[in-house]
Amino acid sequence: MMELDWLGGKIAGEGVLRLSKKIRDLEDVFEDHAAWTSMDPETLVYSVEWTQPTAQDNEGGLFWGVTVIEPGRVGEEFFMTRGHFHAKRDRGEYYTAVQGTGMLLLMDESRSGRWEQMTPGSLHYIPGHTAHRVVNTGQDPLIFWACWASDAGHDYGTIQREGFSHRVIASEGSPRLVPSTQP
Ligand code: 6PG
Ligand code: NI
């Protein structure tokens, strides 16, 4: 059995997996490369904890995890996850936010984009064939829980090469969605 710190975004128990992404790990994720270069490479951007009770390729199995995105910006762009399609394209996922405010960016395989506002209690269904990225547009950590198919896998390469259809930037302090000019 696992124990959740629901609002703190932590999982306690045996076999919990953890990763964190710092500025140094996220080259070419943000548009403003000069701003990225000028930042402390050790700055934490987000961390993930998840449980993997079955093998990664277990058809029908489920994973459960939490992501904490720190508040911050690279240039005008808010801190965000790398974003991905699932390697098995038809695999869906649920996200639910418990702390903070942000945006869930979604994009289908024809690069048609949409977004959903994330606030405590918002529940988001990410259908298959849909890339997903979360942007923290607030002043506090954005914490959301997720449940996904254990054989979903991650395709980061497509987003690395082609980017998302939109980016979220601070415009006079408020978040604004702008079409991407480059990956
Ligand atoms: C998944 C989930 C989720 C995601 C994290 C970090 O499929 O595993 O969507 O756990 O991995 O929020 O985002 P990135 O994987 O895009 O870096
Ligand atoms: Ni996912």
From TrEMBL:
<dbReference type="GO" id="GO:0006096">
    <property type="term" value="P:glycolytic process"/>
</dbReference>
<dbReference type="GO" id="GO:0004347">
    <property type="term" value="F:glucose-6-phosphate isomerase activity"/>
</dbReference>
<dbReference type="GO" id="GO:0006094">
    <property type="term" value="P:gluconeogenesis"/>
</dbReference>
<dbReference type="InterPro" id="IPR010551">
    <property type="entry name" value="G6P_isomerase_prok"/>
</dbReference>
<protein>
    <recommendedName>
        <fullName>glucose-6-phosphate isomerase</fullName>
        <ecNumber>5.3.1.9</ecNumber>
    </recommendedName>
</protein>
<comment type="pathway">
    <text>Carbohydrate degradation; glycolysis; D-glyceraldehyde 3-phosphate and glycerone phosphate from D-glucose: step 2/4.</text>
</comment>
<keyword id="KW-0479">Metal-binding</keyword>
<keyword id="KW-0312">Gluconeogenesis</keyword>
<feature type="domain" description="Glucose-6-phosphate isomerase prokaryote">
    <location>
        <begin position="21"/>
        <end position="173"/>
    </location>
</feature>
<keyword id="KW-0324">Glycolysis</keyword>
<dbReference type="Pfam" id="PF06560">
    <property type="entry name" value="GPI"/>
</dbReference>
<keyword id="KW-0413">Isomerase</keyword>
<dbReference type="InterPro" id="IPR014710">
    <property type="entry name" value="RmlC-like_jellyroll"/>
</dbReference>
<comment type="similarity">
    <text>Belongs to the archaeal-type GPI family.</text>
</comment>
<dbReference type="GO" id="GO:0005737">
    <property type="term" value="C:cytoplasm"/>
</dbReference>
<dbReference type="InterPro" id="IPR011051">
    <property type="entry name" value="RmlC_Cupin_sf"/>
</dbReference>
<dbReference type="GO" id="GO:0046872">
    <property type="term" value="F:metal ion binding"/>
</dbReference>
<dbReference type="InterPro" id="IPR051610">
    <property type="entry name" value="GPI/OXD"/>
</dbReference>
